[in-house]
Each structure stands twice: as structure tokens, then as C-alpha cells.
Amino acid sequence: VVEIGTPERSVITTCAYCGVGCSFKAEMRGDELVRMVPHKDGKANRGHSCVKGRFAYGYATHKERILNPMIRDKVTDPWKEVSWEEAMTFAANRMKGLIDKHGRQSVGVITSSRCTNEETYLVQKLTRAVFQNNNTDTCARVCHSPTGYGLGQTYGTSAGTQDFDSVEESDVIMVIGANPSAAHPVFASRMKKRLRKGAKLIVIDPRRTETVEAPHIKAAHHLALRPGTNVAVVTALAHVIVTEGLMDEAFIRERCDWDEFQDYADFVSEERHSPEATEMLTGVPAQTLREAARLYAKGGNGAIYYGLGVTEHSQGSTTVIGIANLAMLTGNIGRPGVGVNPLRGQNNVQGSCDMGSFPHELPGYRHVKLDEVRNLFEETWGVQIDNEPGLRIPNMLDAAVEGTFKGLYCQGEDILQSDPDTKHVAAGLAAMECVIVHDLFLNETANYAHVFFPGSSFLEKDGTFTNAERRINRVRKVMAPKNGYADWEVTQMFAQAMGANWNYAHPSQIMDEIAMLTPSFAGVSYDALEEKNSIQWPCNDKAPDGTPMMHIDGFVRGKGKFIRTEYVATDEKTGPRFPLLLTTGRILSQYNVGAQTRRTHNVVWHDQDVLEIHPHDAENRGIRDGDYVRLASRSGETTLRATITDKVSPGVVYTTFHHPDTQANVVTTDFSDWATNCPEYKVTAVQVSPSNGP
Ligand code: SF4
């Protein structure tokens, strides 16, 4: 029992973990945070929370936090603590030297979906206005970039269609490649409440997750597909809907391009897309596919929620398109209880994409080639903006290895641990002449850094996060930054050291600039956020109170666009050396690479990643429950303990990636989504064998 005493004051702010965006009261006694209490007026959580948001904030005051800037000439030198002024001068001189010697395209930035909208906006502005290139990318590259592409192509906007309240009117809920019970727990509780009232659940996932078998709830259908066959499954569902005449033809005629629909209908009707023809490939019984398609099409309001099990594939964008097609086919768009909803993994994935962090888009998803958009930013910023898209994260690393990319400012992201093919990431970082890491802790990437800017936690700054339902929530400063400056101030100091004339006194001024330049944010300001509690974009003259639900009378792009979804097998093949397929996921108590949750006294604890393996596969290899095993792929190998379970099918193994000593990404491949380069984390051919331990 911990005695917390009586709080003296409280500040309402937003959880910094997942994309649900729960609102909390941070209760303080003096300078000490004594408790996080879920806020009953939070529109996303309505007084609920999960174990991470409620208890896992201790990392903000953890002893391993770095509070002083550090520099070093070479990465083999020891770090030297310096003043902020000296660190800024050192970093700016190095970056300016690289630009002078190798050209402006030789440097770039990586931003984080952990940071606020205002901080992310400033980092992409630094790239475009100060470095004068478009080499800006975000960690959304490795999670939801296919969502941006797929929903942008079909519906015209790169975001989910509904608010979370919508699930309370769903009759059929299809969850694809997501395990909200572990990764989005507060949304999962709202979903389960609806399921307990009789809504039906369809889960498409290789693994029998906690979502498939929640207490008192059993999915009507679990489609335990073979990893890598999402497109074949989604197209087979469409085949059933079209060939059995289950479409909503009136909706399609009114809201979608009819010629494109006919082309798509011809395509999915081909016999090769039937459940019977795809059963062998996908591993899903034909009858289950047929029953799931019928339930989704005719079971009432059908809503789809999906996660990284959809996007992190070589055909991630194609699956997102296939999901969008399913909703259009059945008219499940534009009213409560329906829609297509990406469950965002990190607190501000939506916001970091909205803020122009991609190398081809300015804030508001507008392409850098559009003259009228570039002109607007050029007039406001007083600089010329490059009209060619810049480098994505994998392209930056490739270019570094080739010797043309020399300098990186990496804010709030540990790419060595979180990006695929760790050896290649390390080679790219090692080849650079200036790596600036801006983070709370000396992370794995910092091993290759020349400059370390200490970061600030969400408790130490003002700003906004945008959650998975496009809701812009206020983040409020609870305590003074322990390192002296909020992250937006650090970026501003760096820009000033590089010669920029930036003078923002508060993040509200940055939001005012965002609103001025971004039509979907035109009505957003800190005053409006105070008044309305939170705002879902678009918010402008047409929608002054924001937009809980999109595409009500028409799609943002005009007519909804059906696109063919041809299944193409991944190049990551199993064979005699690597006969099993590895897929990955998260557990409830940990968050991503664990930098925050591992440094917190969490009430539920898992101190290691484990490998789930089916009893048959374990027996064949002489592996017993709890044994150490060697997990090897074409990329590398690691050692971890095995858990024998039939949650995974024969031929499939599963692990998490929360602990740096496991380094699951040493094993994952470097194949990626054809449209966006999102890594194929979810399919790796592996072998598992007994081991004596690490
Ligand atoms: Fe935080 Fe997500 Fe948990 Fe809510 S559900 S408390 S946003 S981790």
C-alpha cells in the first residue's frame, strides 16, 4: 500500500501512450505527481483508463533520464556535458558544415508520434524552411503510413471515419489485425460493452488473441489466417458479398464511381477469389469466410477496426484499400455504428501525419508539388520550399550507407530498436557524420549520436495530441521541464542556432500558425479547445464544432473509389531453413520498445519477451514450456524463452518487442509495403531451436 497523501492541485491532461487519447487529472502535491485519475469529462475515455495511463508515468522522473545536453566529436569518445548554448552551437555548426560540403539534401529529420502536434509541426518546418529540403519522416512510416495511402486513395482523407461513440450503435464489429484488449484497452472496453448487448464480433488475426476470447464474449467468427494473406481474405469476403448479391447497390450508385465499381465487381467475382479457391492459401475454412462475409454485409450496422496487423505488410496499403472497398460495397459509411477505423498505436500518430511529417506532404496532407499550397507556406515562412518529395526513413539509411546522406536530427524515436533490420539501421547511422538524438533517455540510437538534446515528458509541456478519432486533445503542463526546456523550445533553439528567426513564446502561437495554414484546422485554437473540451478535425467555417463522423453525404474526394486488390505473395518465403512464420504484437502492460513502461513501477509486469509456439512445433523440436530457444531468420537471431500454446496455429510463432535484450527486430525482414515502405514486421520466415540461453 502506498500512502499518497492529499493532492494540493490537479491539472487535466492527455495520456501519452496509445491512440485512444484518454483524459486524466494529474494530481500534484508540491512538485510531486501523486496520482493520475481518469477524467470523467474526457470524451474518448469517459472516466475510464488502463494500467498504462493510470500507473505508468514514473518514467518522467526516472533516475536514468538525461537532463543536460551532451556532445562528442566521435561516437567512440565519451559524452561531455555542456551548456544548452554550447550544444546548440556544436550541432548547428556540424549540420551547416555538412550542408555546405555535401548539399542541402544531405541532411534530414525523423519526428515522433509521441511528441505534440506543435512540436512535430516545428520539426517539419525546420526541415523545409531551415534545411530547405523535404527529408522529413515520422515513426508513422513504420506503423500507419499505409492507412494514409489507402484511405486517401479511396475516400480522400487519411483518417478514420468515426468517433469512438459510434461503436455503441454497431451491430457487427469486425476487428482486423488488431488486439484492442491489449493495445487499446479503453476502446476495447467500450467495444465489449456493445458486444455484451448483443453485437456480433468477427476477428481476423493469425493468433487467438484476448480480443477473440474476452471474458463473457466469444467472437462469432475467428478467421485465423496465415500471416501475409490479408489481401486474399479481404478479397474473398468481397467475392461473397458481390456474387451472393449482398451489396448495397443504392449506396454504391449514389456515392461511388459506378464504372470503377463494375470493374472491381468483375475482378472480385473471378472464381480464383472465391473462399473455396483461397482456403488453402489463407488457411481460413471457406465456410467461415462465407459466414463472416454474410454477417458483415447483412447483420446491421457493420464497423471495421484495424491495426498494425493490416498495415505492417508488403501489401499493407492494398489491404487498407480492400477494407475501404468492403465498407463501400455494403454501404457501411456515413452514419453512426459503421465506418473504417484505424486504431492508432501511439498517442499522436494521427497528429504527426496531419502535421506534414511525411516527405511528400505539407501539413494537411497537401502534396509538396502543388504550387498554390507551397506558395502559401513560402509567403508565411519567407523561404522557398523544395517542390520534390524528400527521403523516407529507409531511403535516408540507404543513402547514408551509400555516402550521400550525412546528418540526422532524430526526435523522440529510437530507430535502432524500433525499425526493421537492425544491422542495416546501425550501418546507416554509423556512416553519418552528425546524428542528433533528442530524447528522454540515452536510447540505443544514441550509441551512434554526436549530440544529445535531453527531451521533456508529456507532463512538462503544453501542446495537443490528436487521437485515433481525429480528436485534438489538450496536453497541459503539470510540472516544470526537468531538463529546462520543453521539446518545442529545444527545436526552436536549434533552428535559431541554424540562423532562423523564430520567436514562438507559447505552443498556442504555433497552433495559430497551423490553423492559418491548414484548412482542416482553421477553427482550432487553444481558446476553442478550452471552450469545447476537445475538437475533432475538420474544424472550420463549414464545421465550426468539428466533425465526429466523416463522409456523411459524400466522400471527401467526391465519389468513393473502388480499386482492385490483387494478392501478391510476400517475398519473405518459408523453406527448409526457415519453415515457421513469425508475427509480432504487444501486451497490455508494456508500450512499444518499453522505454517508458520499463522505467515505471507498473502494477502488472512482464520482465521479458517470450516466444509463443504451438505444441506440435515445440514437440517436433524438443522444446519444453519455459525453455530458452534460438529464434533465427535470414536477417539475424536472438534468444528468448518459449511459451507453448495453441493460441498460435501450427507453423506460426509470435513474440513481442518490448525489451532491448531480446531485440526482436534483429530478426525481422527489410521487406516493406509497396506504396509506403512501411516495414513488413508481421511476416518473417524463422527457425526455432533449443538453446542454452543468451
Ligand atoms: Fe493511455 Fe491508451 Fe490506456 Fe487510455 S487506453 S490510458 S490512452 S494507454
UniProtKB/TrEMBL annotation:
Q: Which GO terms describe its molecular function?
A: 2 iron, 2 sulfur cluster binding; 4 iron, 4 sulfur cluster binding; formate dehydrogenase (NAD+) activity; metal ion binding; molybdopterin cofactor binding; NADH dehydrogenase activity
Q: Which cofactor does it need?
A: Mo-bis(molybdopterin guanine dinucleotide); [4Fe-4S] cluster
- Which keywords accompany this UniProt record? 2Fe-2S, 4Fe-4S, Iron, Iron-sulfur, Metal-binding, Molybdenum, Oxidoreductase, Repeat
**Where does the 4Fe-4S Mo/W bis-MGD-type domain lie?**
8-64
The organism that produces this protein has a lineage beginning with:
Bacteria, Pseudomonadati, Pseudomonadota, Alphaproteobacteria, Rhodobacterales
Cellular component (GO) terms are: membrane; oxidoreductase complex
Q: Which residues form a coiled coil?
A: none
| Record has Oxidoreductase as a keyword | yes
Listed name of the protein: Formate dehydrogenase subunit alpha
The domain of life for this entry's organism is Bacteria
Q: Give a GO biological-process term.
A: formate metabolic process
Q: Which organism does this sequence originate in?
A: Pararhodobacter marinus
Give the protein family.
Answer: Belongs to the complex I 75 kDa subunit family.
